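From the shared-data thread, chain only:
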Amino acid sequence: MPDAVVSLVLYVATAAAAGIGLPLLLGGQPSSASIVGGLLASWLGLAGWPLLVAWRKGNGPRFDYRIGLSWADVGAGMLGALVVVALGFVYIVALLAFTDSAPSSAAGRVAAEVDGIWLYVLLLLIAVGAPVVEEIHFRGLWFAALRKRGVGPWPTVLLTALLFAVLHLEPLRTPLLLLSGVVLGYLRMSTGRLGACIVGHALVNSLGALALLLAA
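Structure, as tokens:
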């Protein structure tokens, strides 16, 4: 559990430092390069620390975080992605009915500030990098830490989903992110590996990245 907390603190610290420091180093104004660089820097705490801990103190990330992939995981991940997309559709329709406004994603706001080749780099990171990094942190490190502490399977799914949703800092999308986290957590619990979680997460993010690309 301490390593999970350290990873979370490092993520917040590196994200804040990158958000303030990189623009200053690159000319005082946020640039496409500084935005992408800041995202990569924040991942040092989110996934870099868990990987380091597994290599130095554990049995390696593959064993400690159950990083594995089979064709069954691919199928489960695809099914999970369909569930998340369906939940997203229902949530947006309900939100429009009650508030007359659709939620915007943090990724969309960031993408609006990036142009040129950096936009393609950012969208690739959103589609592929973020799912791997976030799953290692939430359904890898935190899931394993909570289970090791004796927390039951379903409470672990719910706690990691809550952490996943809150850490995105997107109030209007928090309920949807929470539900998505539950789906991904169920994949982790039912398959015993991260593969299905990563596949499902990547498919959902890829749809979002494609939408951002078409809107650019």
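Residues 20 and 204 are 30 Å apart (CA to CA).
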